[in-house]
User: Fold these one by one.
Assistant:
Number 1:
Amino acid sequence: MKLDNARNYLENAKSLLKEKAIKKNGHYQYKKYVRLAGHAAYLGVLEALDELMKHSNYSVKGRKDIVKYQEFLAHYNKKMLQELNDAYEILHLYMGYDGGLKYIFCQEGIKTAERIIEWVEKQLEKSK
């Protein structure tokens, strides 16, 4: 399947958190690695959605803009739209920009990315 890139981004994010960000007392210790992990996981989500959008003949030209993905999912699946919004808030904003260090928030972001990527894989399988 063409979601290898999305999976690689997600695995890199997990690895950064586990090996570099260092969990201690419910928080990660290194903001730099949390930011990198947040960006990587978020890109994994967007890569997966890009594949689904292409498969659905939805135009994905230009820069990655959350609004394009939100519009697509608003028509395709409202539950996944909420998952995308959660991924945006946790992975992109909280982790990627703010460098938020709270372990359970970061882990929820990673789980959200996993759910989205798995869902996209199922959608692509169904439409074969």
Note: The domain at 4-126 is CATH 1.20.120.330 (Four Helix Bundle (Hemerythrin (Met), subunit A)).
Number 2:
Amino acid sequence: MRLLGSRQRTPRMTGSPTTNPAPTASPARIFRALPKGIWVLGFGSMFMDISSELVHSLLPIFMVTVLGASMVTIGIIEGIAEATAAIVKVFSGAASDYFRKRKLAAIGLLFVSALVPPPERLGRW
């Protein structure tokens, strides 16, 4: 805590600039130290993101060529999707802070997103 009128001293470097600090762990050792659950959640999230990005990038092309949608319609749909995602992020973050169950929330959301089909597959059910 800094008091009024007091001067804060800047730390001085000691030793020569060629002094090697403590050895750091190799990246392979750090990766092996991560728990199995981190790897499972990480890869699960990565594959879900890849699949949704593939669909997300091709959906406007499908809407224009097959469904005959205009660019304005695609823009409105994209805007609604982005707004919905932003609102859900705000409320899910607030709920996570309130309930303090982050691990349960992460696992639950991954499970729900794996079960709920994307909108383009709903027509086939």
Note: The radius of gyration is 25 Å.
